[in-house]
Structure formats: C-alpha cells, structure tokens
Amino acid sequence: MQTPAAPRRELNRRATWRGIHAAAVTLVLSDGLSATTADSIAGHAGVSRRTFFNYFATKEDAVLGTRAPRLDDDDLAALAGPGGDDFGRVVRLMTAAVRSVFLDLPSFTLEHRRLLKRHPELLARIDARVREAEALVHAALGERSSSADPARSERADSDRALVLMAGAVMRFAFAPDADGVIHDSPEVVDAAIERFRGLL
Hints:
68% helix, mainly alpha, Arc Repressor Mutant, subunit A
C-alpha cells in the first residue's frame, strides 16, 4: 500500500527541519554562537540558504528548534466550548500555543540546557517566542467580543490577566523533572490547572 503524498511530504519536511536544527546545535557547541551563521548552518545541513529561511526565521531559532507560535482551528474551537471555565480553557490554549513553538517540546532537554548554560543570550529568543504565544492567545480572546461591546475594555483587562495567569500555569506544568524531562501531556496540564485553581 502506498503512503499518501501529504504525509510523506510532512515527513520530509520534519526530516529537513530536524537536519537543520541538528546542524545548528552541532556548530554552536563546537564553534560558539557568534561564529555560527545561517549560511554555515545551511552548509552543514546540506541545504540552501533559502531553504534554511523557509524553516527558521533566525539562527537562534535553528539552534533552539523554535518557530512562530500558531493555533489551529481545533485549539480555537475549544476556547468557545461549553461551560464557564475560562481559566482552564485559556491555560489549555496557552499550552497549545507554546507547544507549537517547539516541534517536539519533550525533547527540549539536556542538550538544550547545555546550550543555554553556555549561551544564556539564547533565553531571550525563547522569551520572545513565549511572548508571541501570549499575544496570539490574547488576540484570540479579543475576537470573542465585538468592538461595539460596552464591556469590551473591562473584558480586555480580564483577558490580559487570564493570559498572564495562564503563562504561569504553563511554566509550572512544563518545568523539567529531576531527570530534565519535560512532560507536556494533557494530564500534566490539567493537574497544574487544578493546583493553581486551589491556590486562587
């Protein structure tokens, strides 16, 4: 039985992504961050400069394996689900946005910690991507009310507070365990939500 073209294309895309990311990590660990360029990463990965920038916006993204956050239709549909649990829904939306920054969040472990220890300036790129995820979630919340809504301003403040709290819950949920492993299952996120709900 032949594999459909779309999944094969996605597998090829992921293989190219991983190849560029692995080349970036190898070069930074051997040559340092400042000596590593997008061109040297592309050359080491065996891809063109254009292909590099089709996958990563910056060399820092290539080293960290990060990309711009995104939310799919299912993520956004869950935000409008039944019930009044805005807190839980916003935390889940935030975790979806942050997960999307990393192709494989649980694999962001020992090697990346070595990189961050040697090059703490890379933390700024992670922080920037998380802030982009927060902005994406805040925009999604803002789309729930019309510009004519008289309570829109008050709701915007509440939404901003929800996003900031969701960020704290997400950081708690995604903290590496003693072995440096990140557990990002829905059960871990749900347990973090309940922990914070109990505190609040």
